[in-house]
Write a structure and sequence with these properties.
Helix content is 40%, strand content 16%. It is an alpha/beta fold. The chain has one domain (3-279): Divalent-metal-dependent TIM barrel enzymes (TIM Barrel, Alpha-Beta Barrel). The protein is globular, with a radius of gyration of 18 Å. The chain binds zinc ion (2 copies).
């Protein structure tokens, strides 16, 4: 199984590979730049090479980048939209250069303008980012909870963005168990998980799904609130986490934890908790 957590690359790419393996993982996620925006992180060719050599030596499987939360591809404010569009374009190429397999982005919030207007703006930014792009890093739109004016809580929203981008081969989707549950997909049973997978197969196509964020949920089914909880401690619970990970399709995806730990090192406990839940019935 490809399992890890959201870490950081501020100490360098090679150091992040070490940390990933120390915590018991074989994949990890990191922000492409400071979560509150900021400038793109400089990385020399030497640092990238060292990181990728360490990656090969340690057997780190998937490298998952995440765009900053401040990037709102659906923003009606021209300055915010231009910033988001530029970051999407630049960080996709940067991610490809450093060897990321996928980059995950929240589709965005329409801030009162409506889902249709939001989708149109997101699609414009995605088309711009993929124009002339021939890299190997895939850009993944994340499934959202529908909190506030978020776009992307229905698979149909994501499909419309994919269609508007002419199903560019580098474009796909990242599932998030907390967001899906909050959006109304009951993932507490194997049947519920299979139903969700079947829906995404029909609407998006499973070959487009490139990653799973595994988070428990502090809030109930259909709450449309984005509140992650530690593994097994929320409304999904241990049975839900097990149902999700025992799904044969889900098992093929890189799985990244974004649960609310106080210190990044506590992800060792979270990774262990996942393995224990899976071992209960193996
Ligand atoms: Zn997520
Ligand atoms: Zn979330």
């Amino acid at each position: 199984m490809i399992l890890g957590a959201h870490l950081t690359i501020t100490a360098g790419l090679a150091a992040a590979m070490d940390l990933c393996v120390e915590l018991g993982g074989n994949t990890f996620q990191f922000f492409t730049r400071n979560p509150r925006g900021g400038k793109q992180r400089d990385m020399t060719d030497g640092e990238i090479q060292e990181g990728n050599e360490r990656r090969a030596a340690l057997g780190v499987q998937a490298l998952v980048g995440h765009f900053p939360y401040t990037v709102n591809l659906a923003s009606p404010k021209p300055d915010a939209y231009r910033f988001a569009r530029d970051v999407l374009y630049q960080d996709l190429r940067w991610g490809d250069r450093i060897g990321a397999d996928v980059l995950v982005v929240h589709p965005g919030s329409h801030v009162g303008e409506g889902v249709d207007a939001g989708i149109e703006r997101i699609a414009g930014a995605v088309r711009h980012a993929l124009d002339g792009y021939a890299g190997r890093t895939r850009l993944l739109l994340e499934t959202m909870s529908g909190q506030g004016s978020e776009v992307g809580y229905e698979p149909g929203h994501l499909r419309r963005i994919l269609e508007a981008a002419d199903w560019h081969p580098a474009l796909g989707v990242c599932l998030d168990s907390c967001h899906l549950f909050a959006a109304g997909f009951d993932l507490r049973t194997p049947e519920g998980v299979a139903g969700m997978v079947e829906t995404f197969d029909r609407v998006i196509g499973l070959d487009r799904i490139g990653c799973l964020h595994l988070n428990d949920s502090k809030t109930p089914l259909g709450s449309h609130r984005d509140r992650h909880e530690l593994i097994g401690r929320g409304h999904l619970g241990r049975a839900g986490i097990r149902a999700i990970l025992e799904n044969p399709f889900i098992r093929t995806l890189p799985v990244v934890l974004e649960t609310p730990v106080d210190d990044i090192r506590e992800y060792a406990d979270e990774i262990r908790a996942v393995r224990e839940i899976l071992a209960e019935r193996d």
